[in-house]
Amino acid sequence: MHIVTEWIEVRGAREHNLQAVDAAVPKRVLTAVTGVSGSGKSSLVFDTIAVEARRQLNETLPAFVRGFLPALSRPAVDAVDHLPAVITVDQRRLRGGARSTVGTITDIAPVLRLLFSRAGRPSVPNPDAFSFNMPAGMCPACAGLGETTVVDLDVFLDRTRSLNGGALRSDVFAVGSRNWRILVDSGRFDPDRPVDDYTDTELHDLLYADDGMVAMRFQGQSYNASFEGAVTKFRRLYVDQDPENRSSRTRRLVDAYTTTAPCPDCGGTRLSPLALSSRVAGRTIAELSALAVTELLAVLDEIADPSIAPLLTALRGRLTDLVDIGLGYLSLDRRTASLSGGEAQRVKLVRQLASSLNDLLYVFDEPSIGMHPRDVSRMTDLLRALRDKGNSVLVVEHDRDVIAAADHVIDLGPGAGAAGGRVGYAGDVAGLRASDTLTGRFLDAPIRLRPDAAVRRPTGQLRVAAARAHNLTGFDVSFPTGVLTVLTGVAGSGKSSLSQVLRAQHPDVVAVDQSAPGANRRSTVATYTGALDPVRKAFARANGVEAALFSANSAGACPECAGLGVIEQDLAYLDTVTMTCPACHGRRFTDDVSRYRLRGLSIGDVLEATVAEAAAFFAADRRLAGILGALATVGLDYLRLGQPLTTLSGGESQRLKLAGHLAEPGGVYVLDEPTTGLHMSDVQRLLGALDRLIDGHGATVIVIEHNLDLVAHADWVIDLGPEAGAGGGRLVYTGTPSGLVVAQGSHTGEFLRRAVE
Ligand code: ADP
Ligand code: ADP
Ligand code: ZN
Ligand code: ZN
Predict the structure, then answer these.
(1) Per-residue b/e over 76-108, b at no fewer than 16 CB within 10 Å?
(2) 39 Cα to the center of ligand 1, angstroms
(3) Which of 334, 374, 471 to mutate to test the pocket of ligand 2 (most atoms within 8 A of CB)?
(4) Lowest mean pLDDT among 230-234, 384-388, 633-637, 743-747
(5) N or C: which end of the chain has fewer CB within 10 A?
(6) Ligand 2 site: residues with CB under 6 angstroms?
(7) CB-side exposure of 144: number of CA atoms within 13 Å?
(8) What is the mean pLDDT of residues 271-282?
(9) What is the mean pLDDT of residues 449-470?
């Protein structure tokens, strides 16, 4: 039990829907903030506590330094006291370009380099000589990028044509151009012969030669030009230009006619020959970095050199953290840009575990996302480890197991939007269970398995042959149509890879992902769903004016904010700052338009209303009722009609897109973790929406999920694994949920069995 002596105290928090919330977050414990989606968890944790912590920290900096930071406006809160410095560990993808890898971002790579500088055979004493980000270690040919840009001959050259017929496709060598004339007048080639019929020497000269002079005529004049093969010239003129200063024409040409290939000098390892000459346990640092972390640990176990024992211990500790958090299938050389949001968040957590700072406040956004139930308990162990180093840990979570592991819970609610924004419970988990909150009620609710008798009968099959991408082993598998199929397996087992193969083999499959719905910054919930149109018509009818007056691109909309009521300012490299439009003060339209009313409300008022409020207000409008009803079905009735799509979370974006499909018949949909951001009670609504899509519209729904409520509700389960990476990629189980719970060797089956018992 953790004795709490200090608290972070929040008084009068009013961001978004928060109703003057008073809350106390105990220091140096693990606190879960819970509540239905839209209840105000993010508003409290991220928009109030984290923003205020950062603002207070900025205030302590000299004015000169503050000048370079975004002016953080004070959140709408009376006071937040006793705040430590905050570190936000969110699901934003890790950028950092080609030089950022799992090894570099976790600071494991420097330890490995130190190991090689001490124990490598032969030894290269300078650790920097093993770094592809340092001049001493990088491959000189590719400057440590591991790949080079090569002219893509399949695109650059049409071998069925002659020089006169336009064999060189880029306009740099257009028939009749000066560059083309040099090649033709060189006399080295028959300009009417297809390139396919060239000898090897001719082909080499055409592309790569760099010798001799050509006496040529061009535009009525005689010149002497030096001869350069087409690829050699194209490289010199365009590819070799500094990428930072390329003109748009250069960028277009390079994009169109080149591709990347592993650097031939270093074989893609990014390292210098010297670095690659040194070995530990018989392997180069590049070979060790390419191993899955679990395999790397096994190799390190073979080393028995007492002089480096402390280094090995440090290295093993860091690698074990990665394994414990369910990322043992990644390799240290994996680029961070290719990690999923959930993987990125866990990698960031591992980096924090290695830090020796304490008395910080860590805030996490649903750290369980993307994790199989098997790995969640290991992740909560790591959150506790962060706490035990003397930090306060605050997580926004929906996962039963994470909530149950918390020392303290703050539950917001009772509902979403205007119906939420209050603290319904604060205390330990036992008290939460006994409390009259939706979270307490659902925490121990049994998971109901769909019995075989209730399983839908498929209308057909989508066959996938020889599935082979990333770690998939080439199996055949069928996805039944007209039913709900859940694709399961531990993180890294191959679920996304299989869904990519399915989409490649059946292009009519629609992926409903968590990316922002294609839209510009003027798009709102109302414009995207088509709700704005009937709203405008209702206003026009009531006032005897044109409907177009109420449109965001009419003269009636505020010209400053295009009818959004807010303005987003992008400060280069820093966060985007949103502020109320100074021209219309958030009213979105000109005063003239704002004067038109519909049963007492202005158009701006309606756009401020939530979907639920609008549904009540427009109950008599059939078309609006359909659109708003679909939003309610996917659990989005707390969104405001005029909310810009740029403010939606990934999960909200995905459900918004799903709502759009509720009106269409048929269709095959693949959804990746649609329960992201959903409270247990909202998951039940999502299940209802999926059922409606299948039963009402004849759709086929395939869901990649870890949530056991969803797995239990499926008609068909495809379980991949059994492990991640090279230990996975195989078909472990296909069949009904009731068969899964008795299946041998399935982690999903084992956890589902425990949950239904
Ligand atoms: P939760 O994290 O519990 O899902 P949020 O704090 O994100 O809830 O949202 C609480 C309420 O505030 C919701 O009604 C939501 O629509 C609204 N809201 C969230 N972000 C914004 C924003 N940037 N602007 C206006 N309203 C917002
Ligand atoms: P899941 O969706 O089950 O989490 P994935 O299909 O994403 O699993 O990954 C399966 C395996 O393929 C893992 O070992 C993963 O590291 C690897 N992998 C996935 N995407 C890439 C990529 N872009 N580059 C290299 N390896 C990848
Ligand atoms: Zn190289
Ligand atoms: Zn405005």
Answers:
(1) ebeebeebbebbbbbbeebeeebbebbbbbbeb
(2) 8
(3) 471
(4) 633-637
(5) N
(6) 329-330, 338, 470-471, 489, 491-497, 724-725
(7) 17
(8) 96
(9) 95
Q: Are 707 and 696 in contact, with CB atoms under 8 Å apart?
A: no
Q: What is the Å distance from ligand 4's center to 567 Cα?
A: 8
- Token reading at 181: 């004339």
Cβ < 6 A, ligand 1 pocket:
16-17, 35, 37-43, 416-417, 638-640, 647
Atom of ligand 2 nearest to the CA of 470: 12
Which pLDDT belongs to residue 610? 93
Which long-range contacts (C-beta less than 8 Å, at least 24 apart) are formed by 557-561?
557/588, 557/589, 557/590, 557/593, 558/583, 558/584, 558/587, 558/588, 558/589, 558/590, 559/583, 560/584, 561/588
The CA 498 to ligand 2 mean position distance, Å, reads: 10
All residues at 6 or more sequence positions from 340 whose CB lies less than 8 Å from its CB, including other chains: 93, 370, 496
| Closest residue CA from atom 24 of ligand 2 | 338
| pLDDT score recorded for residue 220 | 87
pLDDT classification of 94: cutoffs 50, 70, 90: low
Closest CA to 586 of 572, 605, 612: 605
Show the tokens assigned to 482: 């007209």
Q: Which two tokens stand for residue 215?
A: 């006496």
Overall average pLDDT of the 544-565 stretch: 86
Rounded to whole angstroms, the Cα distance separating 259 from 198 reads 24
Strand-pair partners of 672: 704
The pLDDT score that the predictor gives to residue 573 is 40
ipTM for the predicted complex comes to 0.93
Find how far residue 33's CA is from the centre of its chain. Answer: 23
Please choose from 294, 327, 333, 470 the residue to mutate so as to test ligand 2's pocket, defined by most ligand atoms within 8 A of CB.
Answer: 470
Which tens digits make up the pLDDT trace of 394-408?
Answer: 999 999 999 999 999
133 CA from centroid of ligand 3 (Å): 12
Task: Note the pTM of the prediction, 2 decimals.
Answer: 0.80
**How far out from the chain centre does Cα 677 lie?**
14
Q: How confident is the model at residue 575 (pLDDT cuts 50, 70, 90)?
A: very low
- Looking at residue 574, its pLDDT comes to 42
Distance from C-alpha of 462 to C-alpha of 487, rounded to nearest angstrom: 14
Give me 318's structure tokens: 């860091």
pLDDT in tens, 126-151: 999 999 999 999 999 999 999 988 99
Contact 616, 599 (CB under 8 A): no
How far apart CA 88 and CA 48 sit, in angstroms, is 13
